[in-house]
Design goal:
Blueprint (H helix, E strand, L loop, with lengths): L15 H8 L14 H7 E8 L5 E3 H10 L10 E11 L2 E10 L2 E12 L2 E11 L2
Parallel strand pairs: 1-6
Antiparallel strand pairs: 1-2, 3-4, 4-5, 5-6
Pfam family, one: DUF4440
Organism: Rhodanobacter lindaniclasticus
Protein name: DUF4440 domain-containing protein
């Protein structure tokens, strides 16, 4: 027996500008207009940032930065599809963005906690979970 399929959550009307700003930054670390270098990625994340990968493994900021520094761009990235974006305010200048990412046959649900830092945005936490 499969659980019932739920519709995508709806972002509150007052958060549409935040939703748009954050949507443009996802998937994180794959938007060259927001960063290409280790220094860019350092500015993009808070000091105690971490992420949980689709495997369930926890990755420290230092590990993520090391991987990003040596990553070769995936030529298939231009075919990736994002959908179902939702934004929820968690606290003062802090937001949860969720969405679905299709990377060919691989489909994952993504969640990123973002914090507004002046005129910019920084990533607090990120998680990807494979869709069964």
């Amino acid at each position: 027996m499969h659980p019932p399929v739920e519709s995508d959550p709806v972002t509150a009307p007052g958060l549409h500008d935040v939703l748009q700003a954050l949507r443009e930054r996802e998937p994180i670390f794959h938007r060259p207009e927001f960063g290409r270098t280790r220094a860019d990625f350092e500015r993009m994340t808070i000091a105690d940032f971490f992420e949980i990968g689709a495997s369930g493994q926890r990755y420290s900021r230092a590990h993520v930065l090391d991987v990003l520094e040596h990553r070769v761009p995936d030529p298939a990235e231009h075919t990736w599809k994002t959908s179902g974006f939702h934004c929820r305010e968690l606290g003062s200048d802090t937001y949860l963005l969720t969405y679905t990412l299709e990377q060919g046959e691989r489909v994952s649900r993504r969640s990123t906690i973002w914090r507004r830092d002046g005129d910019d945005w920084v990533i607090v936490f990120h998680q990807g979970t494979l869709v069964a």
